[in-house]
Design goal:
This is Rab GDP-dissociation inhibitor. By secondary structure, this protein is of the alpha+beta class. It has two domains: 2-56 and 152-171 and 183-189, FAD/NAD(P)-binding domain (3-Layer(bba) Sandwich); 57-149, Guanine Nucleotide Dissociation Inhibitor, domain 2 (2-Layer Sandwich), CATH 3.30.519.10. The protein has five helices and ten strands, in the order αββββββββααββαα. The strands form three sheets. It has a five-stranded antiparallel sheet with strand order 6-7-8-5-9. A three-stranded antiparallel sheet has the order 1-2-3, with no helix packed on it. A two-stranded parallel sheet has the order 4-10. Strand 2 (27-33) and strand 3 form a beta hairpin. The chain is globular, with a radius of gyration of 21 Å. The two termini are 23 Å apart.
Length: 210
C-alpha cells in the first residue's frame, strides 16, 4: 500500500505530531505539525484526532492472555479464531477469541497470545469475557483493557474531514472493512465499484501484464 501511494504521488511524513487541523470557511485545508502545514482537500483520520467531531458509542473489553499451550479442541492450531454466540451465553453481543503464536513471529517458541474481547454490557467488563477465558485456561499472564468506542457525528461531506469509527470487539475485520467502504462512499459520493477495478501487475510487482 505504501508503494502504491508513492507511485501515485503520495507523501509520507513519519513520526510527526499533529498540532492542528487547519480549517478555512468550514472546510479542511491542511494539517499543521511542528510549524509546517501539509495542505490537503480531504482528510481521513481516526477519532483521536477530532474529539469535537465524534460521540461515544460504547466500550470494548479486551483481555490479552499469554499461554504456554494452544487452545484445547483446536487440533493444536498455531492460530485460530473462536466466536462465542451471544445467545449461548445470555448476552446481547458475541464474544471473540483470536489466537496467534510464534508461527507469526509475535511470541517466543512455545508461547501463544490469545485476545478475548466483547462489547461491554455491565459494570463488570472482565466477567463478561469469562466464557472465553475458560477456554484458554491455564493462563500464564493476562492484561485487561477497557476502551471507549467513538463514531463520527456527521458524514464529513461539509467539512471534508472523514473520521473512521473506533475498532469494535470483532476480530475478523468485517466491520473495519465496512467502515473503509463507508468512508470511500462519503468521500467520493458513490460506493466503490469493485467490478470495474482492474489492477495491473506493475502496481504490485513492478512489471507490466504479459
Amino acid at each position: 500500500m505504501q508503494k502504491l501511494s508513492a507511485i501515485y504521488g503520495g507523501t509520507y511524513m513519519l513520526n510527526k505530531p499533529v498540532d492542528e487541523i487547519v480549517m478555512e470557511g468550514g472546510k479542511v485545508v491542511g494539517v499543521k505539525s511542528e510549524g509546517e502545514v501539509a495542505r490537503c482537500k480531504q482528510l481521513i483520520c481516526d477519532p483521536s484526532y477530532v474529539p469535537d467531531r465524534v460521540r461515544p458509542a460504547g466500550k470494548v473489553v479486551r483481555v490479552i492472555c499469554i499461554l504456554s499451550h494452544p487452545i484445547r479442541g483446536t487440533n493444536d492450531a498455531n492460530s485460530c479464531q473462536i466466536i462465542i454466540p451471544q445467545n449461548q451465553v445470555g448476552r446481547k453481543s458475541d464474544i471473540y477469541v483470536c489466537l496467534i503464536s510464534s508461527a507469526h513471529n509475535v511470541a517466543a517458541q512455545g508461547k501463544y497470545i490469545a485476545i478475548a474481547s466483547t462489547t461491554v454490557e455491565t459494570d463488570s467488563p472482565e466477567a463478561e469475557v469469562q466464557p472465553a477465558l475458560e477456554l484458554l485456561e491455564p493462563v500464564d499472564q493476562k492484561f485487561v483493557a477497557i476502551s471507549d468506542i467513538y463514531e463520527p457525528t456527521d458524514d464529513g461531506t461539509e467539512s471534508q474531514v472523514f473520521c473512521s469509527r473506533s475498532y469494535d470487539a470483532t476480530t475478523h475485520f468485517e466491520t473495519t472493512c465496512d467502515d473503509i467502504k463507508d468512508i470511500y462512499r462519503r468521500m467520493a459520493g458513490a460506493p466503490f465499484d469493485f467490478e470495474s477495478m482492474k489492477r495491473r501487475q506493475n502496481d504490485v510487482f513492478g512489471e507490466d501484464e504479459q
